[in-house]
Amino acid sequence: MIKKLLIANRGEVAGRIIRACRELGIKTVAIYSEADVKSLYVKKADEAYLIPGDPIEAYLNYVRIVDLAKQVGADAIHPGYGFLAENPDFAQYCREKGITFVGPTPEQIRLFGNKVLAKKVMKEAGLPVIPGSEEPLEDPEEALKVAKEIGFPVLIKSAFGGGGRGMRVVRKEEEFKEKFESAYREAKTYFGRGELFVEKYLENPKHIEVQVLGDKYGNIIHLGERDCSLQRRHQKLIEVAPCPVLPKELRMKILGESVRALSKVGYENAGTLEFLVDLKRGEFYFIEMNTRLQVEHTITETITGIDIVEMMIRIAEGEPLPFYQGDITFRGYAIEFRINAEDPKRDFAPSPGKITAYYSPGGPGIRIDGAVYKDYIIPPFYDSLMVKMTVWALTWEKAVSRAKRALEEFTIRGVPTNIPLYREIVSDPDFLRGDFGIRFLEEKLPIYKERIKTLRRKEDLVLAISSAIVSYYGL
Ligand code: MV4
Hints:
Oligomer: single chain
Strand content: 15-25%
Structural class: alpha+beta
Bound molecules: ligand MV4
Distance between the termini: 63 Å
CATH superfamily of the largest domain: ATP-grasp fold, B domain
CATH topology of the largest domain: D-amino Acid Aminotransferase, Chain A, domain 1
Strand order of the largest sheet: 13-12-9-10-11-14-19-18
Number of strands: 20
CATH class of the largest domain: Alpha Beta
Low-confidence stretches: none
Radius of gyration: 23 Å
């Protein structure tokens, strides 16, 4: 039984893990950098330890983190997402030091961290994959040969990376070499490994992911799918569960094949299989597997009632899954909005600063996973995520209209946010139709930006007039 758990992370996910531990009666240990002294999760943990020095290194130096865990008597570590969450050496070091790592085995993290090997293994396990190179590539000439066999357009991807880094779309042979070399340099810089691979590029698919849970006894179940197509430059913004336009038979195939493949390969703890789905052709392709908790796990929890973080901890403690696949039910639709401190006027550049007003919505079907409060100063060193709002309703249409109401209620002042962008999206009939692919936002942004600007001008005008009246009458 885990009695004390150290969270090797910060921000909203640290708060989320603390909540699950509180409900399980597990003591929590937070670590924080000098930039996070005032962060909410630090106040919520039973114990908190400052990690002095570089604000990012504080969450990456796993030797120091594991040694602290041993010193304070923590028997487990949860990595959250980002930072060390998919670092196999970290998971291995925990194993060597006798600390329970709340996540998959080091071997599974290593396997799925190699995108080329993962594709090969999952293809052998029966999942459809996108035509592409079977081995990592480093030589542009050899890669060009593969690209010509596949046929343009192709997508160059990093074999050991993610999140769009080292990724290039190539539409013509003559631009291949230069893009391959720049992708190589970028992958080398960001991941320390430049190896790449090439695939046929799908123009505007749905980006669908499947949440799975596996215990230490070979039981694997899925918790349904999430539609993560609404993203901007590889940053997910809005996620939906279930996908509102996925035909039932295609859903059953994707979910069933995911469980079947993972049962063959073997997997323990929480994981997410990523697919690209061509709705018109009814085809789906496995692209990669994330061996960690995801930001958007909240929408899956909302429609299934399962606490994924609790399940991760129970699995790590050696408990078998407490349910069969048939016990899992799916009810309604959930939409997650990532509320970021970003400035739509500066191309959504991160805009940290002090929050001067904070009123989050409530009422039926609203969940708030927050990391900020009035007078909190958002540090500039980390991602711009302030709070996640999950909206649930029994039907898709109701979920969208409830989201509209909640976004109208949501008030954050002192820093610009992407709430105005979300108000535009949920009012767009095309969003309501649900058939948005990964290009949706790229195509819609120019219109949204104009409307946000006009809206802001009106708001500024109303503010100017009202303050003039106030000062004129000395109110
Ligand atoms: C693709 C793709 C289209 N064709 N692969 C790779 C990282 C993963 N998280 C999403 N990725 C994609 N892989 C092929 N063969 C489209 C995506 C993709 C994407 C690509 C570029 C820009 C934004 C994107 C958002 C979601 C999915």
